[in-house]
Model the fold of this input.
Amino acid sequence: MIFNSIPFAIFFVFFYFLYWLAAARSTKIRNIILLIGSYFFYAWWDWQFLFLLIGVTLVTYISANYISKTINEKSKSIVFALNIIVSIGILVYFKYTNFFISSFINLLDSFGFKTNLSVLQIILPLGISFYLFRAISYILDVKNGKAKARIDLLLFANHIAFFPSLISGPIDRAKTLIPQLEKEIKFDYSQTTDGLRQILWGLFKKIVVADNLAAATLPIFDGYLTMQPNILLLGAFYFSIQLYADFSGYSDMAIGIAKLLGFNITKNFDFPYFSQSVSEFWRKWHISLTSWLTDYIFTPISIHLRDYPKLSLFVGIITTFLISGLWHGANWTFVVWGALHGLYYVPSIIMGTMLSKKKKNKEQTLIQKLSDYKNMLGLFLLIMLTNVFFKAQSIQQAVTYLMRLVSLETFQIPTLYKSQFPAVIILLSIEWSQKNASHGLQNFGIKWPQVVRWLFYFILVALIFIYNNKEQQFIYFQF
Amino acid sequence: MKKFLLKLLLFVICFWAFDKLFIPIVNNAPSLEVDKKLEDVLQGKFNHDILIFGSSISSFGIYAKQLGDSLKCKAYNLSSPGSDIEYQEFVLRQLILNKNKKPKLLVLSVDEPGELYFDKVVNFRLDRLYPLVKYQQIKDELIARGEKNKYLSSLFILHQLGKSNLDFRTRQFAANDRIMPCGSMINSLRTNNFPGGYYNGNRQYDITKELPSKRKKFKSFIETCAREHIKLMIVFMPRFHSRNFYFEQRIKNLAGPNIIYYGYSENSITYKQKEYFNDAVHLNFEGAKLYTNDLFNYIKSERLLY
Done:
């Protein structure tokens, strides 16, 4: 069940009323309904994998309770290590087994050895990276004394399976969600309408922008050997926008749905393409993953190597981004994508600017200095070209794609795939005007007369209706 | 919450009224189309003796007027560029349901090797359906294919529309292509300079790449013809490479023995000359005339129209 589907809409309408009826009675009943709703939501995709989700929840819960209660350091460490091994083992098995097998086959092949090994038929459970990261962070926090093991299994199970963020994040920490689950929630009109606006904006980004751009990027990347260089440049540009609109759109929907239920969950994107440096970009892109990796990968490495400041930063950054790359997908292209992002930090590590105090995030204005635009554009181009590795099927494809961009023809105005452009302009214009807000529609048009504002919302809903299908314009020349 | 629910209800009612402003778009959309084939099928306008089904390969490669004139009958090319067997089966179904005259002979051109494979560029032409969404048959098909929801479709006009409905320009074919009154297409640009020479090597066919949905519709196409007593002829069109007998055998195995099959002679030097092709898979108009003549001779010699 995905958010932009009819089954979800039907499920949510029923669930919503049941949830608020329960919330009016007691917090515990509300949490029971929430957990049943989350499990139903997950089981709709494949009920068998629900047992994996419940299993991970129980194992983590029992381990965390044991770790917090026992005073025997040795057994605490053993239980902790076993839990981490099991969690990472599950992730590696489902997500990376075939990657390792195919890499091993290719390696042997390159030395001229033949093998009978073949990839396995493994179905990747939906949202596994998200809920396992949530579970791992919890056990790490309990081990390090940053979080207390919760006695109430219901709260913990809700934290792991909270359906708005279950399959595509944000990766909330226990300290964000559990306190909210503990307390009584009252219906809040302004939070609810803001949630609806965020869902609307998320749907627009996902359906009207991302899915629409996918219809262009798919044939462009498939035809990278024959497409003209200016079309390839357009394809790289569209893909970067598609990637952002897709992921941040889904995050907006998740956060908006959580708001309808009275919860505030972690913001996941903060208009990252308006950043002026790589470090600022990563503070604004997939925020919940970045902070997870910073806390559990980068910081421990930095502390471990603190006697060698620059080396610790370099090793920490590169390791973090390699893991970030692999987290995004089981392919060497993602490893290269992550490694490149890590390498972009190297100049600031060498110059020592990475350790300098971060600039205070001042209120940004619509009109900025010319140098700001130059930085923004330069960074966007860098990210855009790096994203070719994210989209490509192989490193060879990505390199060829980028090599073909080195041509004078690259800068000619494209004559194809122009129909997608208005959606990109609408997205970027609205987000630019709202870059100090938490989402595109938080304040946009809020002071307009109601008739005008509703008309604007009608147009967005109309576009979502129209674009919500698999229709693709027939690309004639490809025959 | 009461205030919120009331406001939400008001929003939905106002949106429902706003939605009705789009009725003229639905009604006007068919008039923007150059290719009226599908609409004519829906309106039951066909009364031809021979109908040709297929993708761009038969659209450009079989000249229906020449075939009809030679055989002294009415022939029409119902092929659609970019369409797959699922789309062709849909058109055939509509042909029967909408009380068009059944053809005496139906020629189905199958694309080698991708007739039953997944193909990104040959698919179910949804963009041909959306302009005709005012017809109930089209709405039903979009719902059956999971494109639209039955209840939302009946409530909201906007839910019936697709991206192509937002383009208010009259549709154009590519610059050098045009559709002829007989339904066949012609490309006026004779470049003949596509890369590569005639490929004479052995060609393979991988059954595992077949899509069950396409296989099902292919069989359904065959069954519909049999049920409606329409004589079916499956043709393997010339390409700028040797014939793939593995593919042809696979098609024959699936379609069964009661079908007429027609390929072309590999010994004919004609189909090894670049001047008869627009590219490696499409005949140009000169090539189409030659192939249509071969087809005519075969139909006549086998007395397929009688």
Notes: Residues 267 and 287 of chain A are 7 Å apart (CA to CA).
